[in-house]
Design brief:
Layout lengths: L23 H49 L8 E5 L6 H7 L13 H8 L5 E9 L3 E8 L2 E9 L4 E8 L4 E4 L13 H9 L2 E3 L16 H12 L3 H5 E5 L7 E4 L4 E3 L6 H14 L3 E5 L7 E4 L1
Parallel strand pairs: 1-3, 4-7, 7-8, 10-11
Antiparallel strand pairs: 2-3, 4-5, 5-6, 8-9, 9-10, 11-12
C-alpha cells in the first residue's frame, strides 16, 4: 500500500444485509408469530371468564340441592290441609281410602305421582291434578268420567237384569245397587242422580260381561252408546230408551212412544235430521225406519 494513501472502505453488503439485520421474510414470520401468540392469549383470557361463571352456577346448584334435601327432611312446609275437589261420585270415605298421605309429609317430599296413581285406580277417575300451595296446603283436583248410559245387562242363567253405569268413553264404571240396600246407602247420591238423567240401553244380548274399570267390547252396546253421544237436536232429549239387540236392529223409543229403527251409528246427524223432518210433517207418525237414510220409511197411527 502506497504511503499516504488511505485504505479503501469496505463495500456495503448487498441487499442491505448488515451484520445482525433480518430479512423481510424473517420479519413477516416474526410478526405472524406475535399475532398468533396475542390471539391465543386473548382467547385464553376470554375463556377464563365463562369457566368462572360456570363454576359459580354449579356451586349454587349444589348448594340449592343440599339445602332442599335438608329442608325436605325437616318439618318445614308440613302438610296441614288437604283439599280434594271434583270427586262427586266418590264418598269422603272412598277418597280417604285412596289418598294416603303419611304423617309428617311436607309439600316438598309428598309423593304426588303416588297420589295420582292411587286415585286413578277408581273407575270414576279419569285424571288428577295435584298442586302444592305453600306453606301448608295440598290441593287435589279430580276429573271424573261422565255417565253416558245405564246398560241393562242380563246376568246368570236366569238372565237377571243388572244395571251398569257406562261412561261416555266406553268404560264400565260400576253396577248400580238398589238404593235402599246396604251398599246403596253407602255410595254417592250423585250416582243415582246421573242414572236417572241418562238413557237406558236395553235388550243387550246375553253374554255381555261388564267389569269395573274395563272398556266395553260389545259391538251392540258400543253402537248404541255412539248413537246416544252423537244425537244433538231435540231428538236427543225426546229419546226414552235404546234397544240394542244388535247393531243393525238398534231401536230408539221416544217419550211419546214413537219407535225409530235407527240401525248403526253411521250418519247419525243425517238420520236425526230425517226423523225430525218426518215427525214435523206427520204428527201422527208412530214408527220410522232410517236404517238406510236415503230410503227412509214411516208409518202413522
Amino acid at each position: 500500500m502506497a504511503a499516504g494513501v488511505p485504505p479503501k472502505e469496505a463495500a456495503p453488503a448487498r441487499d442491505g444485509a448488515f451484520a445482525g439485520s433480518k430479512s423481510i421474510k424473517e420479519i413477516r414470520a416474526s410478526a405472524a408469530r406475535s399475532a398468533r401468540t396475542s390471539t391465543a392469549q386473548r382467547v385464553a383470557k376470554g375463556a377464563r371468564v365463562p369457566l368462572i361463571v360456570i363454576g359459580i352456577i354449579v356451586a349454587v346448584i349444589v348448594v340449592a340441592v343440599i339445602a332442599l334435601a335438608a329442608i325436605s327432611n325437616t318439618g318445614a312446609f308440613r302438610i296441614q290441609n288437604v283439599n280434594v275437589e271434583g270427586a262427586d261420585h266418590l264418598t269422603d270415605e272412598e277418597v280417604s281410602a285412596l289418598v294416603k298421605i303419611p304423617e309428617g309429609s311436607t309439600l316438598l317430599n309428598v309423593d304426588v305421582e303416588g297420589i295420582k296413581a292411587s286415585l286413578a285406580r277408581d273407575s270414576w277417575v279419569e285424571s288428577v291434578d295435584v298442586n302444592r300451595v305453600f306453606p301448608d296446603t295440598l290441593e287435589i283436583d279430580v276429573h271424573e268420567r261422565s255417565v253416558g248410559a245405564i246398560v241393562e245387562v242380563p246376568i246368570g242363567t236366569n238372565q237377571t237384569i243388572q244395571r251398569w253405569a257406562l261412561a261416555e268413553d266406553g268404560m264400565w264404571l260400576m253396577a248400580i245397587p238398589d238404593k235402599a240396600s246396604d251398599v246403596g246407602q253407602k255410595i254417592s247420591d250423585r250416582i243415582y242422580a246421573d242414572a236417572d238423567e241418562v238413557l237406558a240401553i236395553k235388550g243387550v244380548p246375553y253374554g255381555v260381561e261388564p267389569k269395573i274399570g274395563a272398556y266395553c267390547t260389545d259391538d251392540s252396546v258400543l253402537n248404541a252408546l255412539s248413537i246416544i253421544n252423537g244425537l244433538t237436536t231435540d231428538l236427543a232429549d225426546n229419546v226414552k230408551a235404546v234397544t240394542a239387540t244388535d247393531e243393525e236392529s238398534t231401536l230408539l223409543t221416544l217419550k211419546d212412544n214413537v219407535e225409530i229403527a235407527f240401525g248403526t251409528a253411521d250418519n247419525v246427524r243425517e238420520k236425526e235430521r230425517i226423523c225430525n223432518q218426518i215427525m214435523e210433517e206427520n204428527p201422527s207418525v208412530v214408527y220410522i225406519n232410517v236404517r238406510v237414510p236415503d230410503r227412509p220409511t214411516w208409518r202413522a197411527a
